[in-house]
Design brief:
The chain has 2 domains: 4-85, ATP Synthase, domain 1; 89-135, ATP synthase delta/epsilon subunit, C-terminal domain (Single alpha-helices involved in coiled-coils or other helix-helix interfaces, Up-down Bundle), CATH 1.20.5. Helix content is 29%, strand content 44%. It has 140 residues and is of the alpha+beta class. It starts with a strand and ends in a 5-residue tail after the last helix. Strands 1, 2, 3, 4, 5, 6, 7 and 8 form an 8-stranded mixed β-sheet that branches. The chain has 2 helices and 8 strands; from the N terminus they run ββββββββαα. Strand 3 (22-27) and strand 4 form a beta hairpin. The protein binds adenosine-5'-triphosphate (ATP). Residues 12, 64, 81, 83, 87-89, 92-93, 96, 119, 122, 126 line the site of adenosine-5'-triphosphate.
Length: 140
Amino acid sequence: MSSIRLDIVTAERVVYSDDVDVVVAPGIEGQLGILPHHAPLMTTLREGELRVRKGGEEFLLAISGGFLEVRPDRIIVLADAAERAVEIDVARAEAAKRRAEEELSRRAPEVDTAQAEAALRRSLIRLQVAEKRRKRKPGA
Ligand code: ATP
């Protein structure tokens, strides 16, 4: 099976860089599956799960939105934030979820609802990705 280089980067770091078989990314208009030899593409990502398949194994990352570009030789994801499942600090994501829920429930005028909703979505994605990894085999 042919493969394609996948680079997932944020402003802070290279999160992932390897040759992969398939990428399924959270596009704003739905799941976006990319195989090697895909046509060039530039699109926006929402918060969600990014799935990578390599050598018969699949693993997950949490992505907090960004951009995805398909070039002839590589796929580049420029993410606002991204964590491999194994990197996710569950206690931190739970605390972020509680904070966002509390802010949204207060409905106080000083609360930035859109920001709290986005923080809630990020925390839920992180918890979902960490939970799926926990149910799968180690190394994901
Ligand atoms: P928090 O309120 O806990 O900081 P957040 O959603 O506001 O969460 P971001 O601004 O999206 O955090 O990310 C800031 C940095 O912290 C990024 O590098 C991101 O990868 C990392 N990060 C955020 N939450 C977690 C987590 N639960 N586990 C591991 N890394 C995290």
